[in-house]
Amino acid sequence: MLLMQEPELLMLDEPIAGMSARERELTAELLQRICRNRSVIVIEHDMDFVKQIAHKVTVMHQGKILAEGSMEKVQNDPKVIDVYLGH
Q1: How many CA within 13 A on the CB side of residue 30?
Q2: What pTM does this model have?
Q3: How confident is the model at residue 40 (pLDDT cuts 50, 70, 90)?
Q4: Which residue, 9, 14, 49, 53, is the most exposed by fewest CB within 10 angstroms?
Q5: Is residue 53 packed enough to be buried (19+ CB in 10 Å), middle (13-18) or exposed (0-12)?
Q6: What letters, b where the CB count within 10 A reaches 16 and e where it falls short, cover 10-41?
Q7: What integer best gives the mean pLDDT of the chain?
Q8: How far apart are CA 50 and CA 29, in angstroms?
């Protein structure tokens, strides 16, 4: 229903919560098509899903941007590793 209104921005909070593996795949494909014509912001903790859909990743910690860039850049950022992986 929201897409029929042709929004310029679509914001989704954990869109794959509770979905099966196949449903997550289909949702990733859908979001890839949707983002061709609009900006999409997705808040998600499943990093495998984020890898499938993200063009740019922003990691936040305590309300502030901790790191931003490609998935590879963010995953290798020492601050992200320290805060989220505890290494």
Answers
A1: 12
A2: 0.80
A3: very high
A4: 9
A5: buried
A6: beeeebbeeeeeeebeebbeebeeebeeeebe
A7: 92
A8: 12
